[in-house]
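Researcher: I'm preparing a figure for a lab meeting and need a structural model of a single chain. I don't have an experimental structure, so a prediction will have to do for now. The sequence is pasted below. Please return the structure as C-alpha cells so I can convert it later.
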Amino acid sequence: MNARTIVTLVLVGLLTVLFVGAAQSQDDMVQLKADAFVTHTRPAAVFVHDEHNEKAGVEDCNACHHVYEDGKFMADDDSAGTACSECHMLKANGRQPGLMVAYHKQCKSCHEAEGKGPMACGQCHVK
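Model: Understood. Here is the structure written out cell by cell.
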C-alpha cells in the first residue's frame, strides 16, 4: 500500500468517526420546539430530557406531561408522547394558557419552586 492510499484511508476513517460521533451526541439533544410558532424571536429552547430528569430527580412523567380533565389535574395520567400544541393553542382558551405561556409556566414555575435551573431567557434559548 502506498502512502497516498494510507493517508486517504486515515482521512476517511477520521471523518467517519467525527460524523458518527456528532450524530450520536445529538440523539439525546431535544429542542422544545413547536411548529405552531410561525415566527421565532429566540431560538428554540435546548433541553436534554433524560439528563434533566436524572439531575432533577424527576421520575413521574406527569410532573411535566400533565393531563387535566374539566380543570382537574389527573395525577394518575400523563400526556407523554403528545405534543403540547395538541392541547394548548397559540392563544389562551379560558383558563387554559396559550402555548408559549404554557411552556414558560411549566418550566419556570418548577425552577422557581426548586430554586434551581435556568430562569433568564438566554439560559434556555441559547443562540
